[in-house]
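Project standup — Tuesday

K.O.: blocked on the structure for the chain from last sprint. Re-posting the sequence here as requested.
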Amino acid sequence: MNSRLPTSCLHSIHRQQSGAVLLAFLLVLITGASFILISKLNKATQASTRTAQSQVALKQAKELLIGYAVTYPDNVNSAFGPGYLPCPDINNNGLAGSSCSFNGSTTIGRIPRETLEMNNIKDASGEVLWYALSDNFRNNPKLEPLNSETPGTLTVDGRDDIVAVLFAAGPATGSQDRENDVNDKTDFVRYLEGENADGDQIFSSTGTGEFNDQLVTISRTELMQAVERRVLAEADNILTAYRAAAGGFYPWLSPFADPKVMTPVITGSASSTLTSPPPILSDSSAQFVSWGVRVGDVVLNRTNNALGQVVSVDSETQLTTGSLSGVSSNEFQSGDDYLIRPSGNGFVARYTGVASGASGGDILVDTTGEDFDDRRIRGGMIVENTTTNFSGVIEQLDPDEDGSDDKLRFENPAANAFVAGDDYRARLNLGVATFGSANLTLQDSTLTRNFVARGIVPGDVVENLTDGSVGRVDSVTSNSIVV
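H.V.: unblocked you, prediction finished:
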């Protein structure tokens, strides 16, 4: 009996075995591919989840910062308006720094979680968020005035006018070491990458290599929209209360004054009541003659809104005026606040001087005579160095230990903008129209510093002091303004 299988049967068995091996191979291949695909999908899902979690944290922090700015007068300092933001936390203690500046490398740090009451808001890797702040919006030292025209100084992805940037740093990448040094929690270079880690005011949401920073921004427009709503609500409340108290009437409109320029006025308080007619204004601390007050200048009694004109300048401390309009009591009483806009050139002396020995860099010091506060020089005004032709915007008055204000600090000055012996003057916005002025065109060929050099730009306000009319600048050249 022949036990050998036919050749056809052997071929069939071989084919079945080969098919089983192929099937097994395909199953292994599919299983492996599925595992790789699922692993990649899981990683992508996890990364997407981490990104979403960090974005939620960033947006929550952004809203808290805007809320801080809007409620600044209520919760932080009632002496200032809204818009200021807290300094970053540079000690990792959760609190905003007492002061900060980019020049001092202290306007980039952790977000002040304790100050903002946001301890539970962290990125997806469990890290406290990081925070960069424009110098113009820091709460100390403050820029005054802060308003809708104040620019943000930060740039992100080529977009400027950014007020603040919030970062989710994510896990450590590359050579970042966050564990082996006492400074690992305060050094932003150990957390941020690329353009975000070089300490300047330019940032980016993308980068090459191992870059995992996520960020959101607060633009000036976003911040000021919220601040303006607060301001308008306050104005509405005040006007509503005024209307109710005034029997259904609103107050007269007041012309806008450009905060960048100096309108020279004298303010003070009457030191005694002199009842003999005509009205006499007596102020023992004044220098009416030296300040250039002249016959015809307008005097406003700010206490009762009475108006009069100077009839005679009797002495440094006394003026005689014509009858006061709008009041029954035709006199200046002791303690009445007053305002005078003088026409005399002598008043310009209040806004000129010589830099003293401690001047240098962004500081102008003048220890002679009245201090800057008494001379009504304020942050946001422009001072010119008439020795070097430098001009700069005053950032703030720096009080000395004795309480006097004889020091000015400037925004972004040139090196050694002022040195001892330099002549200076506060920019005055008074002048006389010269030949060529007509209709809506103002020309002044007598300017020592032309309109452009004085910083006048379209949108600024021009007031005709002769007839009281007011207009906005449409275009400006060196000696000509069109309104």
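K.O.: great, moving the ticket to review. The longest strand covers residues 159-168. The radius of gyration is 34 Å.
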